[in-house]
Write a structure and sequence with these properties.
It is a single chain. The chain is of the alpha/beta class. It has 11 helices and 8 strands. It has an 8-stranded mixed sheet with strand order 1-2-4-3-5-6-7-8, sandwiched between helices. A hairpin with a 2-residue loop joins strand 1 and strand 2. Helix 2 crosses helix 3. The relative contact order is 0.14.
């Protein structure tokens, strides 16, 4: 063997030894290797503690300004799809961004606490945290599952909400949600809630038993590279308009919140909510045909509807320039 070959061979051995040593010290499943750290693992992230959990949350804008609570999609997504609305802080509002329980970079929980009642209490306490008094009303701004979440809350606590901005909720009842999922499945394998019905059923069902309920990093990673990756392609009946960003999915909540709430109807008191509601839907999402649009909007007695053209379900990101002036005008009267 020549001297140059010997040197190269020695170099390879050193590299291999280094890699093996590193593998002994660290595992790919150690926190932070597969997905970003949560607030329990990264103390530098802004966080609040309410209702027995620790949430990745913060607010922009002066204390005392009218409060806008953003509600991201999923269940299990994160705040990034609504982050462009931070500009509202420059218009005299206090805008709250947060990742919901077991979602985004917030604390992970076991399935038994991922329930409708727990999510209602989380939002109630979040509102109390960011308002001056329990009597102060807020504006809710929700997209997709977040718009469903906002409606669930208004149906239970209408007195806490003075303004409501909804963007393409999937359904306010179990029936309307399943109808919507069927239509979206026709043009995309695993969008939003149908992620739960297809991909997550394979990964998380008791018959599969791929991971234990403690393996949040692995669950979240599988979700991101499997079902969740379609969020980079907004489901539409034309070529993707860009999708929307996400840091980390909460796979547990994406599966178990649905399973823990198999039959729901969040329309039982909406006829009593007479404050103006602002409703957005997109041109390119075939899930939003005229029949579904009617079903979703007729439950509110005072609603204004806007279609955002040339985008799909990513309308709050890639249709933001069209959405913002409408939102700004609505807020002037709230």
């Amino acid at each position: 063997m020549s001297k140059s070959h010997s040197t190269f061979f020695l170099f390879l051995l050193l590299c291999l030894a280094t890699i093996m040593t590193a593998c002994q010290r660290e595992s790919i499943t150690d926190p932070g290797h597969l997905v970003p750290l949560t607030v329990d693992e990264n103390p530098d992230l802004p966080a609040i503690e309410i209702n027995g959990t620790r949430l990745h949350a913060w607010a922009l804008g002066e204390v005392g300004n009218p409060v806008i609570i953003t509600l991201h999609g999923g269940p299990g997504g994160d705040h990034m799809e609504l982050q462009k609305f931070e500009v509202l802080a420059d218009s005299g509002y206090r805008v709250v961004f947060w990742d919901q329980r077991s979602a985004g970079l917030s604390r992970r929980h076991n399935p038994d606490v991922l329930t409708e009642s727990m999510y209602l209490e989380d939002l109630k306490q979040l509102i109390d945290y960011y308002t001056q008094s329990p009597e102060e009303k807020v504006i809710l701004l929700g997209h997709s599952w977040g718009a469903m979440y906002a409606t669930m809350f208004v149906n239970t606590y209408p007195e806490r909400v003075k303004g409501l901005i909804l963007s393409e909720p999937g359904g306010f009842t179990n029936t309307s949600m399943l109808d919507y999922v069927k239509r979206t499945q026709a043009i995309s394998l695993t969008p939003e809630w149908s992620n739960d019905l297809v991909w997550m059923e394979q990964v998380m069902s008791p018959s599969a038993k791929w991971f234990s309920t403690e393996d949040h990093e692995l669950f979240d990673y599988q979700y991101l590279i499997g079902a969740g990756i379609t969020l980079q392609q907004s489901f539409s009946d034309k070529e993707s308009t860009g999708g929307y960003p996400v840091q980390r999915f909460g796979a547990m909540v994406g599966y178990h919140l649905r399973n823990n709430t198999p039959y729901f109807d969040w329309t039982t008191r909406l006829d009593q909510y007479t404050s103006p509601v602002l409703f957005f839907y997109s041109e390119l999402n075939p899930g939003y045909n005229q029949e579904h649009l009617k079903t979703m909007t007729e439950v509110y007695p005072n609603i204004t509807i806007h279609r955002i053209d040339n985008v799909g379900h990513d309308l709050m990101v890639n249709g933001f320039d069209s959405v913002l002036p409408i939102v700004t005008d609505y807020l002037k009267h709230r």
